[in-house]
Amino acid sequence: MADGQQFNIVTEGSVTTPQGFTAGGLHCGLKKTDRHDLGAIVCEVAAAAAAVYTTNVFQAAPIKVTRESLASSGRLRAVIVNSGNANACTGKQGEEDAYSMRNAFAEAIGVANEEVAVASTGVIGELLKMDKVYAGIKQLPGKLQADDQAAEDFSQAILTTDLVKKTIAVELNIDGKAVKIGGAAKGSGMIHPNMATMLGFVTTDANIEPSSLQNLLREVTNVSFNMITVDGDTSTNDMLIALASGLAGNDSLSEAHPSWGSFKAALTFVCVHLAKAIARDGEGATKLVEVRVQGAVNDEAAQAIAKTIIGSSLVKSAVFGADANWGRIIAAVGRAGQPVNPDTVDIALGDIVTLRQSSPVAFDEEQALEYLKGDTVIISVNLNMENGKAIAWGCDLTYDYVRINAAYRT
Amino acid sequence: MADGQQFNIVTEGSVTTPQGFTAGGLHCGLKKTDRHDLGAIVCEVAAAAAAVYTTNVFQAAPIKVTRESLASSGRLRAVIVNSGNANACTGKQGEEDAYSMRNAFAEAIGVANEEVAVASTGVIGELLKMDKVYAGIKQLPGKLQADDQAAEDFSQAILTTDLVKKTIAVELNIDGKAVKIGGAAKGSGMIHPNMATMLGFVTTDANIEPSSLQNLLREVTNVSFNMITVDGDTSTNDMLIALASGLAGNDSLSEAHPSWGSFKAALTFVCVHLAKAIARDGEGATKLVEVRVQGAVNDEAAQAIAKTIIGSSLVKSAVFGADANWGRIIAAVGRAGQPVNPDTVDIALGDIVTLRQSSPVAFDEEQALEYLKGDTVIISVNLNMENGKAIAWGCDLTYDYVRINAAYRT
Asked: What domains are defined for chain B?
């Protein structure tokens, strides 16, 4: 493999693809169905670790605990995750439960408490059933494997209203060594710019210091997970965590390393893949919507405009109905609070131009209908001002979104 | 009637209740159905006028024309409105059409062009069928009356996806004279903080200078129309216009007048009534949701938090499903970008307290279900910090919202 922006996708790859990682999942009883609800990723060495968290003022108890673990040495041996209960807004007891969950799993696999991170997703405001959690933690070490089935079990254990698991792995060459990056994510509701009941787990066997991994993860998050929205809500529990075992044996990665760009491109691919998978699996979604904005005064303006379009309930409903209602797109552009020249905007749905220099262009409605019926819809907006650009992802707004969210808790 | 914050509601009152105003409406053919789509309010004298407009960068042609009319002398004789077509993003031709519509109606009722305002609502990006508009304008003067039926015809002519007309009138005593304020509004989709395909018309026979009316209208809009949201979108066509004939004969109203507070309270009541009517009639809505925030660091913070809650698709879906999912409410509070103490928040649904000092309170789920099934749901949030407070209105998110917006244009 030549150096540069090159990497291969590993078929059926996931968080156990990189060297040093095992994973597993099981049903301990937090979900009412018999689906998996407790899982873990374990690294055989102390992995360099990095994480980004929800920006919500109300941060769930597991986030507090994970922050504390990560602050200890910047390295982790494991992350334990439950679904079915977010352990958020649960007061002092919830905090104690998150610590107990962490410490119990640390003991079960024989590592220090501070070497374990905790993540939770599910209903807010109810206490965790700790007897079920403890029972699950007893069985979990016996389930940990590096094979595909174990990775699959983990991916299932982190889902809530998701319909499909979201996993990926890539491989690239750094310093003559095969470096792998794997990822798994969950999320389908409460997904918005700043990561909302989204859990993401990235593993790699690359050799990289925690501080470099942290900076890179933050940068990559801004063009991947932070560019998706399902409904504009931001959860109390979002977390993206990256673990690097270093077992690939490459020279330590930093901005000075000649393969930094390649590694960044590969990690970006993994995170964008997972982010798009979350958007496509948005609650009730029937299609992925990609919004490409160019010609904005800068990238930040383009990001804000792209997110406003992708977040518009009217645009999302129109896409669901395969209605080429570009008026709603331009209305969203106009309320994004960014510099826009009202006379120079182009809009296209796929290849079908509907607006040029802010004037309507006659187009074939039948052709547009056919395009909008597809499973991926690309909306392109060119402001024709400067060179700012951005891409955002989301989904359509459907009857099923309403159905799912009208009765989530009950 | 004693002076102070006192006024009476006029039964079946509307824009023709105040002295000096006639109105009317008819079907000219802009809508595919046979519902009214062209209407006007006419004042027998040059009324003091004021208006507030959409904040969208893309402002529809009629807004440009109305701004120009209003800038001429601050006084208007009439406003002509069509539904079925927004005349937005229609380029030079659309602008010419808006002027032609204004000028044709000015000629038909024998006033100067600059004494007429124009408003449009409906589909974006299609040219007005001007032959139908002209034919309607010819008939419209013959329909203008001060009676209830004519006011009803006008109210019908401004509707799009609205299910019910929205009208109100009040009466109060100023300087020993009976002063009346009437109002009509339309709007059910694209409604958000800064007025979105919302058209509002307020008439009064109060004697007041245009500049005082303008300042007051802006102030009142901020606690009424700007505090409602249906779906977070902001139209290109919003307009709230107020006309004051002065025929009540009171001394000219200004902040120095002893009845200024009474007049303001009455106008606020009219605008809040219309705003709530719009929220309740939100596209697909089954109930009105009122969010009361108190204890914020200031009123602006309270407004932002109230609007974030009322705008949350997850909160709206839960209300539709009568699910007491207060976790989504606190998640919305936490992402509003305002100062919040995460340990001191109280939340109640009606009288049912679900969170106190940020800790869950056990409540009767059956009782909550019964309450949430009602046609009005009040969500109260107390941040227990300072004295900032605000009230916002919205509606639930339903299957019908999706149905209506998936196929609006077709």
From this structure: 8-280 (3.60.70.12), 288-406 (3.10.20.340)
